[in-house]
Specification:
337 residues, alpha/beta, Alpha-Beta Plaits, 2 domains, eight-stranded parallel β-barrel, four-stranded antiparallel sheet, binds phosphoenolpyruvate, binds manganese (II) ion
Length: 337
């Protein structure tokens, strides 16, 4: 249930409604909106009896929430969430491009790629310091050294930086060095990690589990938001199917569904969806045409020598082309749809 307060409701009226909800054993979660406050009712098992709240001063409307996810749902918050990261805004009206190598391999590698992607128009530098690898014998990332390199990249290029955190112990250190914390596909339902990242002061980008439904993905985002973090970006990165021509299958239909169901921004990662670089530009065009709020793309200046995911990494010149093309598509869709 969502209690919508009238535009001119006073603070006392809002507090009285919060107290009335809590007196019934529920949790009240005020949600500031554009010009009015709404109060979400959480922890109810079954329908909430609206009658005691309906007649209270300042209450405009009571809206039943039909979805299992609440705080992340459009029913709870109608306006799009726009997330501020340094001087960037991610969400409605903006196209945010994140790019960089799969893994941070060295300072020279990271800096070289960062300069290329910045010149091409990327806003955020990506790179893994803690890598979730299928094989324990594969390169696992540089750890804290990788985080330090990311911080240097930010200092030198001015780009914001994003990296993945794989476990609760490393959330503090990742939060210290980077601007956005990434939770990867393999950890989408790692609930203790979600809770811990929900207490972080930095935005979290939550990738879709490789076989998760949109509902499960939004419920995972609900964990983050329930723990207190309202700055969440969703990232569609393809789901596991039977096909062999790509690493995963990019679920473009998730974009309109997420836009309908949630107020959170949605970014698309065509690289991990594709697995092969020749698919990355067409998938990027399609994602932007389908109204994704941005892209996360793997780029490497020497993909043949990359320590992970070289086959799906774009050459810098290809990335430049990608940026030019998706910006043109974004301008058309922004102004005409
Ligand atoms: C990544 O972005 O570095 C990554 C490992 O992606 P995913 O979690 O989508 O596989
Ligand atoms: Mn990768």
């Amino acid at each position: 249930m969502l209690v919508v307060m009238s535009k001119n409701a006073t603070e006392e009226q809002v507090n009285a409604v919060v107290n009335a909800i809590e007196a019934r054993g529920y949790e009240a979660r005020p949600i500031p909106g554009g010009d009015r406050v709404s109060i979400g009712i959480l922890r109810n098992e079954g329908p909430v009896d609206p009658s005691p709240i309906q007649g209270m001063a300042g209450v405009k409307d009571l809206i039943p929430v039909t979805r299992p996810y609440k705080l992340v749902s459009r029913e709870f918050k109608a306006e799009d969430t726009v997330i501020k990261v340094r001087d960037l805004e991610i969400g409605n009206g903006h196209l945010t491009i994140m790019a960089g190598p799969c893994a941070i391999e060295s300072e020279i590698q990271a800096m070289t790629i960062a300069k290329h992607v910045k010149k091409a128009g990327a806003h955020i530098f990506r790179g893994g310091a803690f890598k979730p690898r299928t094989s324990p014998y594969s390169f696992q990332g540089l750890g804290e050294e990788g985080l330090k390199i990311m911080a240097k990249v930010r200092e030198e290029t001015g780009l914001a930086v994003i990296t993945e955190v794989m476990d609760t112990e490393n959330v503090d250190i990742v939060e210290e060095y980077v601007d956005i914390i990434q939770i990867g596909t393999r950890n989408m339902q790692n609930f203790s990690l979600l809770r811990r990242a929900g207490h972080a002061k930095k935005p979290v980008m939550l990738k879709r589990g490789m076989s998760a439904t949109v509902e499960e993905w939004l419920m995972a985002a609900e964990y983050l938001m329930e723990a207190g973090n309202t700055d969440i970006i969703l990232c569609e990165r393809g789901v596991r199917t039977f096909v062999k021509h790509s690493r995963n299958t990019l679920d473009l239909s998730a974009i309109p569904v997420v836009l309908r169901e949630s107020h959170l921004p949605i970014i698309v990662d065509p690289s991990h969806a594709a697995g092969f670089r020749d698919q990355v530009i067409p998938l990027s065009r399609a994602a932007v045409a389908a109204s994704a709020h941005g892209l996360m793309v793997e780029v490497h200046h020497e993909p043949d020598k990359a320590m992970s995911d070289g086959s799906q990494s774009l050459y810098p010149e290809q990335f430049e082309n990608l940026c030019r093309q998706v910006k043109a598509i974004f301008d058309i869709t922004k102004n005409n749809f």
